[in-house]
């Protein structure tokens, strides 16, 4: 349980494991339901991608789910060919907390983030985004490639 008193729904952990081991979804968005539990809001069943162009299209679809009204937790399964020709498949955690959002919600999500991340064992990539300019595919994909 998080310091905020928010629990992580067991379906969230199962979805993470499925994404990590079998690449079943390109992305999953999570929200805090009734200030009590973290649950899946939306996910994508796109097949794993092999190029930056395919991956960017899926990423851009995910970004359309991010609003300024409420923070979100996101898992995104990057899949593209690096500039050196290596195929990369990396799962990343993105914490969306819009600057213009309500302070109380931002505090609730921030105090619940670590409890969620503890369920996501072996996750090596984490990004925080506070504005749409922070969720630019090229910037995040370049960072993934640089650290891979």
Description:
The protein has 148 residues and is α/β, with parallel strands linked by helices. The protein is 36% helix and 28% strand. It has 4 helices and 6 strands, in the order E-H-E-E-H-E-E-H-E-H. The protein has helices at residues 10-22, 52-63, 103-119, 137-147, and strands at residues 7-8, 27-33, 37-43, 72-81, 87-96, 125-129. A 6-stranded mixed sheet has the order 1-3-2-4-5-6, with helices on both faces. Strand 4 (72-81) and strand 5 (87-96) form a beta hairpin. It is globular, with a radius of gyration of 15 Å. It starts with 6 loop residues before the first strand and ends with a helix.
Which short descriptors sum up this protein?
single chain, 148 residues, alpha/beta, six-stranded mixed beta sheet, 6 strands
Give me the side-by-side strand order of the main sheet.
Answer: 1-3-2-4-5-6
Tell the overall outline.
Answer: globular
How many helices does DSSP assign? 4
Overall pLDDT: 94
Outline the biggest β-sheet: 6 strands, mixed
Low-confidence stretches: none
Structural class: alpha/beta
What does the radius of gyration come to?
A: 15 Å
The portion of residues assigned to helices is 25-40%
Strand residues, percent: 25-35%
Write down how many β-strands occur, each being a DSSP E stretch of 2 or more residues: 6
**C-alpha end-to-end distance:** 31 Å
SSE run? EHEEHEEHEH
